[in-house]
Amino acid sequence: MPMAADDIVTLIEEALPGAVVEMRDLAGDNDHWAAKVTAPQFAGLTRVKQHKLVYDALGERMGGELHALQLTTQAPT
């Protein structure tokens, strides 16, 4: 079963307190998502390390319940 946007947001927000997560369904199938994550924890980190924090928050769901995630990350300005 595909993963709902609200569930993805909850997991990210729990792992990265203060994060702002914007979700977009790329294919209309609730299975291919684009997420823009703005989080204070990203300050001073490379893009790769920022993405790793998000993927760590999603854990084993990536590639399973969550088939595809286009990710954009940034620290607050």
Automatic annotation (TrEMBL):
Question: Which Pfam family is one of this chain's hits?
Answer: BolA
Q: Which InterPro entries match?
A: BolA (IPR002634), BolA-like_sf (IPR036065), BolA/IbaG_stress_morph_reg (IPR050961)
**What is the taxonomic lineage of the source species?**
Bacteria, Pseudomonadati, Pseudomonadota, Alphaproteobacteria, Sphingomonadales
Provide the family line.
Belongs to the BolA/IbaG family.
Query: What is the organism of origin for this protein?
Result: Erythrobacter aureus
Protein name, entry field = BolA family transcriptional regulator
Gene3D superfamilies on file: BolA-like (3.30.300.90)
Organism's domain of life? Bacteria
